[in-house]
Specification:
Chain A is built from 4 helices and no strands. Chain A is mainly α. The longest helix of chain A is centred in the middle third of the chain and has 18 residues. Classes of the chains: A mainly alpha (about 80), B mainly alpha (about 210).
């Protein structure tokens, strides 16, 4: 019988969908019977989705300018 | 906006052109990835000045060593590795901060952190403005210990595979997985405070 601790140990592979069918079925059976683990799996999945959906902020203009200046200098040096 | 590495440009061609000294091609590669590299550097160093240095050093080194890029990994993975190395060097130089080592023994005990169990509403992030959400997510990441933070950022934000993450950080695959689990559970815990369904108390299901 799968315990909540077993479930947590497999959670990362479960959410990343890299488990074989047999283990996956056991975990899925567990969360239909255990509301706590269902909530943990669901909210952890949402956590990952929210972070994945975040685009990086545009680089601040001053940082961009200094980066381009540094690279131009570097390129000129390399091709001298 | 920075598009993902899969989209749009023919990266192989750009890399080849850049290698032959085509500055415009290299400039396009920089434009394509600078946002992600800057974000990664900020997450790892937790310091804007250091992050800016890391950003510059990463692309300077990439340009300098472009002929060493073999093309058997993705270009993005290659520059991420450079960026992570630069960022870690910055951290190690900050000697006053004792919590910076990625190699330090961390508690990998099986007691994973789950204190609050409460269901979230549908699309809970919609309750917040983009700025509010950004600051909630950023501060949650900042509160993670560096070993967990780096793994989470590479794996779940920059979407490297487990193997790539292990490779970039010089960790084993099981170590990446166990740190990732800890990081995800800790973030889940922190975000629950903001995203739990209204009216739901903690431990409602216990």
């Amino acid at each position: 019988m799968l315990t909540c601790k077993d479930f947590l140990n497999e959670l990362t592979d479960y959410l990343d969908e890299c488990l074989d069918a047999e283990v996956r079925t056991k975990l899925e059976r567990h969360i239909t019977e255990c509301p706590n683990c269902w909530v943990i799996a669901d909210t952890t999945r949402k956590t990952i989705q929210i972070y994945k959906g975040m685009e990086p902020y545009p680089i601040p203009a001053d940082v961009e300018t200094r980066l381009m200046q540094a690279l131009e200098k570097k390129m000129t040096e390399k091709h001298k | 906006m920075i598009v993902s590495s899969q989209a749009g440009i023919d990266e192989t061609t750009l890399v080849l052109q850049a290698r032959e000294g085509n500055a415009r091609a290299f400039g396009e590669l920089v434009k394509h990835y600078e946002g992600k590299i800057f974000r990664l550097a900020q997450h790892v160093t937790q310091n804007r000045e250091d992050a800016e240095d890391v950003l510059q050093e990463t692309f300077m080194k990439a340009y300098e060593h472009l002929d060493q890029f073999q093309g058997n990994s993705k270009f993005y993975t290659w520059i991420v590795r450079i960026a992570v190395n630069q960022a870690l060097m910055k951290l190690r130089r900050r000697k006053t901060d004792r919590s910076v080592s990625l190699d330090e023994a961390i508690d990998t005990g099986e007691d994973t952190v789950v204190r609050e169990i409460a269901a979230w509403g549908e699309d809970p992030e919609q309750r917040f403005s983009r700025e509010e959400l950004g600051s909630i997510l950023d501060s949650a990441i900042q509160s993670l210990e560096p070993p967990y933070r780096s793994v989470f950022v590479l794996r779940d934000i920059d979407e490297l595979s487990t193997e790539e993450t292990a490779d970039v950080l010089g960790l084993s695959v099981p170590a990446v997985k166990s740190r990732l689990l800890r990081a995800r559970l800790q973030l889940r815990e922190k975000l629950t405070r903001f995203f739990k369904r209204k009216g739901d108390d903690a431990f409602a299901y216990l």
